[in-house]
Every structure is written in structure tokens, then in C-alpha cells.
Automatic annotation (TrEMBL):
Record-given protein name: Ammonium transporter
One family name in Pfam for this protein: Ammonium_transp
InterPro entries hit by this protein: Ammonium/urea_transptr, Ammonium_transpt, Ammonium_transpt_CS, NH4_transpt_AmtB-like_dom, RhesusRHD
Protein location: Cell membrane
Taxonomic placement: Eukaryota, Viridiplantae, Streptophyta, Embryophyta, Tracheophyta
Tree of life domain: Eukaryota
Organism, as annotated: Rosa chinensis
Length: 467
């Protein structure tokens, strides 16, 4: 095989390179990618009303592709490259051959692998934001929103928290795999964007049944299993940390799902499938910043993630004027912002100093000490400091996302309408894309070639002509 120019045969596997770690990292990244494509594509396309299935699914696919182009063009370097400001890296292309084959900022991996791994996290963040906007955002506005947000918002939190030179990283903030950078960010940004875009049509807000609950469960299953790579890949090595993180992730998620299910049965009398799915998501989100905790802590976190977001969604939401005013289609605020904040605070309480030092590879007894261990070990002030840092991180992420997301929406509003027209809101997919998910067999209708005129010639298929 011909090697890239300037790369000698003995440099194909340099001393710092680990084939095992690299293989797992690429696998973990692909698992995370499959959470979006096809996981969230299936979940979004099936949990919405039938007339929004195509638009909802395609918002996710479009974001995935667009983020990748922006990421290799400038986003990765802004998040993990050379410092420009204390909270942001210098924009630069990340496709230079010499750069791709040099050691990444962490782990025994090349930059090529790290760029791919970090991309799938950036992509899923945008797709989660889309969940708050389903069923009414102008697709052309979404096409502009994605590159703007991944350029001006995501790199700030990623650099500050995940880059070793970031100011919050230096303070000792614990965000193992994205409770802050991904979930709190997407929950706040999605809620903020939903405020500016405006609500769905009244008929959709009053009645918005899933068009296929079985497919919704399939998408949710891909999301759950994909989290093996989401949390298992963040030690950047095939380590004991990775094994513990994977096990804790699934234990917390199962505990959260069951807690949410029990609460639904107690208060509403029926075991809601959609409710259980929400409980699954909040469990995954909550454990994400704290995947390296002891198993008993993961169970407690699951119980709390299945109950506190349940309360904010099912009770508090109905009492708050602000929450009722903003139409958050997929309840991203509750499942990601609330659950992400909860996970961040519980991380500050339950983080095991020994496990944290294994993950962060440091021997600093002033950092990474959960309050519960600080109380137990007589280092209460160190534990309180960690809780304060975790809280500061929440405030920072909220402020950044509210301000930048609002500015982006206000800018876009000058260029293109953020919300679809009333006529398009009534029709849905066919008005926006000229295609429908169930055009051939929905409601007993026959295929109407004059109405469903696809630019890709789908009308010419023999099956369609016989419908």
C-alpha cells in the first residue's frame, strides 16, 4: 500500500500509537454516529405526526452531513486546536496529511481518529437541538442555523471544558462525556431557538400522535446501545475506565427507565411507552458527565434522573408560564437540559477521586473530589469546591447558549423566516419536500401523481403506478 508523502514505512505505526486503542476508538465513534444515523432519524421520523415524518428525519440527516464539513473545515481546530482566546481555539482546516497522522491531544491515537470521534459528538448536539424545533421550523432557516451554531456556539463550550487548555478544564470541571458540552448545551439552545421560532400549529400542539411507536422504539434502542461508544470511548483507550463507564451507563439508564415507568403507572394508571423512552433518555444523559462513578452511585443517579425530569416535565411544566409558552416538541429542555444539569451536580457529589484520577491521569488531591467523598475523608472544602465548579460550568453553558443561539436566530430572521407559513404548517412534508413518508398507504388514499410529484422520479415506479 502506498503511504502518504513524507510518511515512512516505520512511521505507519509509531511508538506512541496503539492499534487496540485506535480500533476501539473508531468503533466507539461509529456507535455514536449510529445514534444519529440512523438512530435519531428513525426516532424523530416515527415519534412525530405522520405529516412531519420526512421533514423531522431529514433535519437530522442534513445536520449530520453539514456538521462534518464544518468540523473538518474549521470546527475541530476551534474546539481542540491552538488557543485563540481562553475559551476558543484558532480556526483552521484539519485535513492536512501531516497533521492527521500526528498524535492527538490525548490517548495513543492519531488526529484523524480523534477528529472523527469528536465530530459525531458535535453532530448529535445539533440533531438534539432539532428535536425542540420539529413540526414548524423553516427548513431553509435550519440549513443556515446548523453551520452557524456549530461555528459560534459549540466550540466555545467544547474548548472551555474538554480542551486541556480550556479554562474550566484547568479548574477541574468533570464532564466525562458531554453532560455539559452536548446535553445541557442542546437542551438550552433548543429551548431558546424554540422560543424564537415560535410554536407549532394549534392543531399540532393539541394533538401530536406518533405515527409509528414500534419504529420509535427501534430508534430509541439504537440510541441506548450506541451509548456504549458514547461513554465507553471517552477514556480514549481500551481501559478499565471504559469498561466501568459502559456498565454504569446501562445500569443508570435501566434504573431511570423503570423509575419513570413506575411514576407513570402510579399517577396516570398506565405504563406509557413514550414515557419509558423519555426515562431511558434522561438516564443516558444524567450518567454521561459521571460515567466513572461506583455502581451504587449509578443506580441512585438513575432513580433521580427518572424522577426529577419526570416532575419537571409532567408537573412543573404545566405550572410554569415560560415552559408552557415555549413549544419544545421533543421536550429537549427536560430530557437534556434538566437531566444534564442534574448529572453535572450529581457528578460533583458522587465522583470518586480514585476513579477520576485514573481517568484524568493526574495526582492532584485538590481536584475531582465528590462532596460525598470529601465529607467521608474529612475534606469537605475540597468537595464543596468541586460542587461549586460544577455549578459554575452549568451557569457558563446556559449563558453562552442563550446569548449565541438568540443572536443566531435574530440574524437569520433578517434573512429568511424562521417559521413555516401557515399553509405549509397545515400540509407538512408534501409542501416542504414534495414527498410524504406514507404517501402510498396513508388513510386509504390512492396515489395521486399530480400531488406527489417527486423530483427524483419516484412516481415512475411500477408499484406506485398500481396503487
Amino acid at each position: 500500500m502506498e503511504l502518504p508523502p513524507g510518511l515512512a514505512s516505520d512511521e505507519a505505526s509509531p511508538e506512541w500509537f496503539s492499534k487496540a486503542d485506535n480500533a476501539w476508538q473508531l468503533t466507539a465513534a461509529t456507535l455514536v454516529g449510529m445514534q444519529s444515523v440512523p438512530g435519531l432519524i428513525i426516532l424523530y421520523g416515527s415519534i412525530v405526526k405522520k405529516k412531519w415524518a420526512v421533514n423531522s428525519a431529514f433535519m437530522a440527516m442534513y445536520a449530520f452531513a453539514t456538521v462534518l464539513v464544518c468540523w473538518v473545515g474549521w470546527g475541530y481546530q476551534m474546539s481542540f486546536g491552538t488557543e485563540l482566546f481562553t475559551f476558543l481555539g484558532r480556526p483552521n482546516v484539519a485535513l492536512d496529511e501531516k497533521y492527521l497522522f500526528t498524535k492527538a491531544f490525548s490517548g495513543k491515537l492519531p488526529n484523524a481518529t480523534m477528529i472523527y470521534f469528536q465530530f459525531v459528538f458535535a453532530a448529535i448536539t445539533l440533531i438534539l437541538i432539532a428535536g425542540a424545533l420539529l413540526g414548524r421550523m423553516n427548513f431553509h432557516a435550519w440549513m443556515l442555523f446548523v453551520p452557524l451554531w456549530v461555528t459560534f456556539s459549540y466550540p466555545i463550550t467544547a474548548y472551555s471544558i474538554w480542551n486541556p487548555n480550556g479554562w474550566l478544564a484547568k479548574m477541574g470541571l468533570i464532564d466525562y462525556s458531554g453532560g455539559y458540552v452536548i446535553h445541557l448545551s442542546s437542551g438550552v439552545a433548543g429551548f431558546t431557538a424554540a422560543y424564537w421560532v415560535g410554536p407549532r400549529a394549534t392543531s399540532d400542539r393539541e394533538r401530536f400522535p406518533p405515527n409509528n411507536i414500534l419504529l420509535m422504539l427501534a430508534g430509541a434502542g439504537l440510541l441506548w446501545m450506541g451509548w456504549t461508544g458514547f461513554n465507553g470511548g471517552d477514556p480514549y483507550s481500551v481501559s478499565m475506565d471504559a469498561s466501568l463507564a459502559v456498565l454504569n451507563t446501562h445500569v443508570c439508564t435501566a434504573s431511570s427507565l423503570l423509575t419513570w415507568l413506575v411514576l407513570d403507572i402510579i399517577f396516570f394508571g398506565k405504563p406509557s411507552v413514550i414515557g419509558a423512552t423519555q426515562g431511558m433518555i434522561t438516564g443516558l444523559v444524567c450518567i454521561t458527565p459521571a460515567a466513572v462513578v461506583q455502581g451504587w452511585a449509578a443506580i441512585i443517579m438513575g432513580i433521580m434522573s427518572g424522577s426529577i425530569p419526570w416532575y419537571t416535565m409532567m408537573v412543573l411544566h404545566k405550572q410554569s408560564k415560560l415552559l408552557k409558552h415555549v413549544d419544545d416538541t421533543m421536550a429537549v429542555f427536560h430530557t437534556h437540559a434538566v437531566a444534564g444539569s442534574l448529572g453535572g451536580l450529581l457528578t460533583g457529589f458522587f465522583s470518586n477521586p480514585k476513579l477520576c484520577r485514573l481517568f484524568y491521569l493526574v495526582d492532584n488531591w485538590q481536584h475531582y473530589i465528590g462532596l460525598s467523598y470529601g465529607i467521608h475523608d474529612g475534606r469537605v472544602m475540597a468537595g464543596m469546591k468541586q460542587m461549586g465548579i460544577q455549578l459554575l460550568g452549568i451557569v457558563f453553558v446556559v449563558v453562552v447558549n442563550v446569548i449565541i443561539t438568540s443572536l443566531i436566530c435574530l440574524l437569520l430572521r433578517l434573512i429568511v423566516p424562521l417559521r413555516m407559513t401557515e399553509d405549509d404548517l397545515k400540509i407538512g412534508d408534501d409542501a416542504i419536500h414534495g414527498e410524504e413518508a406514507y404517501a402510498l398507504w396513508g388513510d386509504g388514499e390512492k396515489f395521486d401523481g399530480s400531488k406527489h410529484n417527486s423530483v427524483y422520479g419516484m412516481d415512475d415506479f411500477g408499484v406506485a403506478s398500481k396503487a
